Structure formats: structure tokens, C-alpha cells
Input
Amino acid sequence: MLVIGIAGGTGSGKTTVVNKIINALPQGEVAVLPQDSYYKDLSHLPMSERAKTNFDEPASIEWPLLVEQIKALKRGETIEMPTYSYLTCTRQPETVTVSPREVVIVEGILVLTDPVLRNMLDVKVFVDAEADERLIRVIARDCVERGRIPQMVLDRYRDVLKPMHEMYIEPSKKTADLIVPQGGSNVVAIQLLKDYIESRLRAR
Output
């Protein structure tokens, strides 16, 4: 099993890179574990407190659960991946069944910030994009998918996303084996990554 970590700032194009890797490899060969599925459950807090949660710092993630589930997949075991609701800031009763695959991709903004997880990754990728480009994508996504208005997104970018990116995400770039500039539009970098994955799989 090849475990790949794909990190990068919010709106950098990580999901696009992941999808292009999945589409380039044989069907059923890749399992994806989104970091967002492992946010800590906040159901014990009143909604007013949940709304103040900073989801862009490492402390918001239940890293031990993510690490243990990767270990289980490596042992050949099927896992029940948690699901999370941004609307209620709670873990949902539904889970997603994930079976062991040749390639496991762990994707999320903070994936390279946790040292235990980082040491489990066979390949560490950082998807890079200009700040303005990322902001445009975040505005488009949050207004459509999360019911926010543009001013709310801009305020959150200024107060949370930008400082957390500079504090945690950008410094994690130096731990990457491969940096993909221009996000998901970098055809050459994605092809190189795909070729490398295929060569590692053949070697096994």
C-alpha cells in the first residue's frame, strides 16, 4: 500500500489534483481519506460556541483516529470513516466504508502539519497557488456549498484563513517531497506525480 499525503492552502486545487490522480489510475485502486472527515465532534458544546471554532488549526483534527485508521488499512482491514457536518459542527452517525487499496490518499490543508501522520506518508505533496487565486475559489465554494455571503467569506479569510495559513500551512510546505505550483492546472506536475506513483506500485 502506498500512502500519499496531499496538502495545500484552502482553495489551492487539492481536490482537483486528487481527482486527476484517481482518474489516471485503474478504477478501484485508490481510496481517499479527507482530513475534513476527522474534525473533532463538538456536539457537547452549544451552537454559539461551535460557531467560534477555528477549523484551520491542527488542534481541530482528531489525528489519533486518522492515524489508527490508516494503520488498519495497512493491516488489510476495512474501516468505517467518519463523516462531518459543517452546518452543525458535529460528527454524523453515518460512516463511509473504506476497504484497503493499492493507493491511499490523505487530503487536507493540515495533512503535513502532524508529525505522526507525516512519518506514515510514502509521498508528501503540497499543492501551491497564489493567495488571490485561492481566495476567489474560497468565495465561490463557500457561497454555493456553505450558504455564506461574500462579506462573511472575506471576513473569515482576513481573521482566520490567512493567519492560519501563514502559521501552519505554508511552513508545512518545506516537508513536502513534491510541490505542485498552479494547483490542479499544472498538467506536467500531475503527470510526474502519476508516473511516480505507478513506478512505485510496479516496484512493489
